[in-house]
Amino acid sequence: DTSVSEARQDNPMWSSRLAFILAASGSAVGLGNIWKFPYITGENGGGAFVLVYLLCIALIGMPIMIAEVMIGRRGGRSPINSLRMLTQRDGLSTRWTWIGWMGITASFLILSFYSVIGGWALSYVGQSAGGVFTDSNADSIGALFGGLLSDPWTLLLWHSVFMVLVITIVAGGIRSGMEKAINILMPILFILLLVMVGYALSSGDFAQGFAFLFQPDFSKLTTEGILTALGHAFFTLSLGMGVMMAYGSYLPKNVSIVKTAVAVSVVDTVVALLAGLAIFPLVFANGLEPGSGPGLIFQTLPLAFGQMTGGVLFGTLFFALLVVAAVTSAISLLEPVVEWLEEQKGINRLSGTLIGGISIWVLGLFTILSFNEWADVHPLDFIPVFENKTIFDLLDYVTANLMMPLGGLFIAIFVGWFMNKQAVENQLDINNGYGFKIFMFILRFITPAAVATVFIYNLV
Ligand code: PFF
Ligand code: NA
């Protein structure tokens, strides 16, 4: 029964701990950090929201990442089959495999809108290279973004280009080449973010931007804000849906899961905070509205690129690398859907990728229309928590704020209360007994209680 998992781990996909960290960071670091984190921070009033978000990462996100990687490494298969094997081996209910099914559904829904936003970034590569940002002002950049959103055909074009990229990479064997490229491109993105923070420091209102991010004003924190922070902790770390389980199945046995999960979480958090530090000083210096929504980075960063020396080059490079970061996350979203079609439906890889990818592309049309023709369509207005939400808002809310935390809750309960304790201890390999006890305490009590409390407050 263990032969498959041993085969996977004796011949691991990741040559080292670093290779796994880079691959998992490729899934984690994406639009969530650079596009979503700044705009939801702006909408939720800044500091207090950021604090809750950081607490969610540390107390909920990291333990769940550890738990997920652990299930994957012990199971050594795709998420659903790992869960099936672990439950059968320990005589537990195979209902736990539902976590995997929900994860596939969430991947499908997330990629449909993720690709549309990835398309925005793609279109900005061209705008930047064409010098459109040069000598612009807040009004002209706002009009440019507004023009993009109001034009469904242009959005469709870039959404299609983005999906073709992702489908090609998942279907073809160019994955390994991709991974090597990521190892070079991600550090460059990181350096570019530092350049942008440097620009914000010299030309933006850095003091106000910094204070907005790190000075908590609890009067601005709402219960919905807390749910958004919790949901974003899951979204940004790619948790609660089996992606980290899938990656964990290839992790060599001698690598520390705890250290690895901490490293991935720290990288992801640093990238998000750098994005915030690059954007908010520009928001305040240009008199923009922090809560202006999903267009925030597309309305602020071009201003900086338009003014700084070498801005055409930096801007083009920045949006191109944002696309790369988005594509590496998108791959980790399409992969489980394709694996499911292959395993359960007996479809070959190419057809599976095409069927999955095209269905996701079609669903993406709803997100495109949410920004123009259907901007006033709020299909679930009769349900209080879904009030005033477009289809895009609903897809985002249902996946990040409901499905992912729910998946995480079940993962925490499974590892904390049901999975063979000796196996957990072996996987964790924490020699000092206290570390293990603290981890188990968090996973058994703190994580489930926190997720459940936030849920109940928001739904009641
Ligand atoms: N973590 C990615 C980001 O922050 O952009 C988004 C994501 C990727 C979410 C993969 C979920 C997932 F399974
Ligand atoms: Na992220």
Automatic annotation (TrEMBL):
One of its GO terms (cellular component) is membrane. Belongs to the sodium:neurotransmitter symporter (SNF) (TC 2.A.22) family. It comes from the Bacteria. Its main location: membrane. It comes from Neptunomonas japonica JAMM 1380. The chain crosses the membrane at residues 18-35, 47-71, 92-117, 155-174, 181-201, 226-248, 260-284, 304-334, 354-374, 394-418, 438-457. InterPro entries: Na/ntran_symport (IPR000175), SNS_sf (IPR037272), YocR/YhdH-like (IPR047218). It is found in: Membrane. Keywords: Membrane, Symport, Transmembrane, Transmembrane helix, Transport. It is a multi-pass membrane protein. GO terms for molecular function: symporter activity. This is Transporter.
